[in-house]
Design brief:
The chain contains 14 helices and 19 strands. With about 425 residues, it is an alpha/beta fold. It has three domains: about 60 residues, 3-Layer(aba) Sandwich (Udp-n-acetylmuramoylalanyl-d-glutamate--2,6- Diaminopimelate Ligase, Chain: A, domain 1), CATH 3.40.1390.10; about 200 residues, UDP-N-acetylmuramoyl-L-alanine:D-glutamate ligase (3-Layer(aba) Sandwich), CATH 3.40.1190.10; about 130 residues, Protein-Tyrosine Phosphatase, Chain A, CATH 3.90.190. About 45% of the residues are buried.
Length: about 425
């Protein structure tokens, strides 16, 4: 396809789901894991799509044949993105939250919405949402080594941010080493690295590269301590300009506070001033450590996703909060592959610090969640919620957490329904 023709398409909306087609959009047929978009191209044109981008001719009017439709999306988005500065953000956890922080702290910047951070989601978000902003904050995810490198090829970051390297998706990636080097691909492309200085591997990897570190033990921006007062967070940071005390809305756990340290380090890399007033009124999204007070019971909705690091941070926050008892309704951490038993044995040891655990069974890895304080386990979300309601009492804090595929929110919704909330 000629670039001049491609540029004409960049003003249109792009769509990969025939059910979401709008009049005049460009339908891109993706051959996915479960469905082949080519099977729906004809339907998309009938519903009003301006053109269908396909990898093989289907004999349709207004079809555009390309060698690879995913590469087409990436190339198209790369042509549309005209930002002077790209900030790439990755890590095993905290990517979306850090991006949201930077969106609030950097005036008029673009950030890909939600968790659209893949080789398909990221270019789609740019094609449909980008409006010429001069700074673009792009969250980048990975399932395997090479994914970050590919995204950075099309959207080269001036500043690369790597928050942490844990065990997220380790079953797909294959090893801790592959995970680490997959994340480090962000730094290979960036001019300036913003990195977790508590991770000695990153320090060694970066060597002479221009860098700004954050962490708790080391770094230019260090989280020194934090506490909770009236369900708000008071945190102390050490910065090159001196000690900074921040009063933050709602309950922020250690992971959130380190993400904020990463955001502050990114602002330093951009030569921008950190204005904490921009964080006032910031609320967590449902499922992402959102705190609810149900009568005299505190519920923490952290059902969106899970990792060992995120579980540890959530449990630590519960320990810092005043409570009669600390309880967790949990499911497994998915995509751990051969490491599943080890991951969930580590999780079980962390859960031992609580006063009671309820386990949602029926998923890969749930059989290995066996702390001594298990009160109930079931494959039925409603049954588990009923048992939890009977056990819970005034003054308790209850955490609901598991990987996204577990749909732990089913237990939470049933729990709230029984209580009449």
């Amino acid at each position: 396809m000629k670039e001049a023709w491609l540029k004409e398409l960049l003003n249109e909306k792009f769509c990969i789901d025939s059910r979401a087609v709008t009049h005049g959009c460009i339908f891109v047929a993706i051959n996915g894991e479960h469905h082949d978009g080519h099977d729906f191209a004809k339907e998309a044109l009938k519903k009003g799509a301006k053109a269908a981008v396909v990898e093989r001719s289907l004999g349709l009017e207004n079809e555009i044949v390309v060698e690879n439709t995913v590469e087409f999306l990436l190339k198209s988005a790369s042509m549309k993105l005209s930002a002077d500065v790209i900030v790439g953000v990755t890590g095993s956890s905290g990517k979306t939250f850090t991006k949201q922080l930077l969106k609030r702290l950097i005036p008029g910047c673009f950030a890909n919405p939600g968790n659209m951070n893949t080789e398909i989601g990221l270019p789609l978000s740019i094609l449909n949402e980008y409006n010429g902003e001069k700074i673009a904050v792009l969250e980048m995810g990975m399932d395997k080594r090479g994914d970050i490198k590919r995204l950075c090829h099309y959207f080269p970051p001036k500043i690369g941010v790597v928050l942490n390297v844990g065990r997220q998706h380790i079953g797909k990636v294959g090893s801790q080493q592959e995970l680490f080097y997959g994340k480090m691909e962000m730094f290979d492309s960036a001019d300036i690295a913003v990195y977790n200085a508590d991770d000695e591997r990153m320090e060694e990897y970066l060597k002479e590269k221009p860098k700004i570190g954050f962490g708790m033990q080391k770094g230019d921006i260090r989280l020194k301590d934090w506490k909770y007062e009236s369900f708000k967070t008071v945190a102390i940071y050490e910065t090159p300009q001196g000690e900074v005390l921040l009063k933050l809305p709602s309950i922020w756990h250690r992971g959130h506070l380190l993400d904020l340290a990463a955001a502050m380090a990114t602002l330093q890399a951009l030569d921008m001033e950190f204005n904490p007033l921009k964080l006032q009124g910031m609320e967590f999204m449902e499922g992402r450590f959102k705190t609810h007070i149900l009568g005299e019971i505190v519920v923490i909705d952290d059902t969106y996703n899970a990792s060992l690091q995120a579980f540890e941070a959530a449990i630590q926050a519960m320990e810092k909060l005043p409570a009669r008892r600390r309880i967790a309704a949990v499911g497994p951490i998915l995509e751990q592959g051969e490491f599943s038993k080890d991951t969930h044995e580590k999780l079980s040891r962390a859960l031992e610090r609580l006063d009671g655990v309820f386990v949602l069974d029926g998923f890969e890895g749930s059989q290995y969640i066996n702390p001594s304080n298990v009160i109930e386990r079931s494959e039925d979300p409603s049954k588990l919620a009923k048992k939890l309601v009977k056990f819970a009492d005034s003054g308790d804090i209850i955490l609901f957490k598991a990987s996204r595929g577990v749909r732990m929110e089913r237990v939470l919704h049933a729990f709230r329904r029984i209580l009449g909330w």
